[in-house]
Amino acid sequence: MADKFLAEIKSRRTCYSLEAKSPISDARIVEIASEVAKHTPSSFNCQATRLVILLRDEHVKFWEIAKDCFKATMPEATYQEYEKKLLQRQAGYGTVNAPPKTRKLLPPGGF
């Protein structure tokens, strides 16, 4: 029974549509993300976590750049497989990302 449960967990996926609107203000999004970064555990409590927050037009521009980079660095057939995922992410309201150095400080799975 446990093996079947673990197999189900490993194959589970969540699929939902993102949309370019938010029920909360941009200022509140930044405030929440800032508080999360501030209180993310860190070595010696140095609070070194930094976030990049892109909303609205900056978010769309970021995903345009990402699509251009993917397209320039992989075969067309491979890009076609990724394009749908990139477009799904671009359809959202914003992007919050931690630079690679910061990601090492975050708990497994991020926040």
Return the string of H and E elements: HHEHHEH
CATH fold-level label: NADH Oxidase
Percent of residues in β-strands:
5-15%
Which structural class do you get from the secondary structure elements? mainly alpha
The global form is extended
Describe the 3D structure.
This protein has five helices and two strands. The chain has 111 residues and is mainly alpha-helical. The chain has a two-stranded antiparallel sheet. The protein is extended and about 45 Å long. The model has no long low-confidence stretch (mean pLDDT 87).
Summarize, please:
The chain has 111 residues and is mostly helical. It has 5 helices and 2 strands, in the order ααβααβα. The two termini are 30 Å apart.
List keywords for this structure.
111 residues; mainly alpha; NADH Oxidase; two-stranded antiparallel ribbon; 5 helices; 2 strands; 54% helix; 7% strand; extended
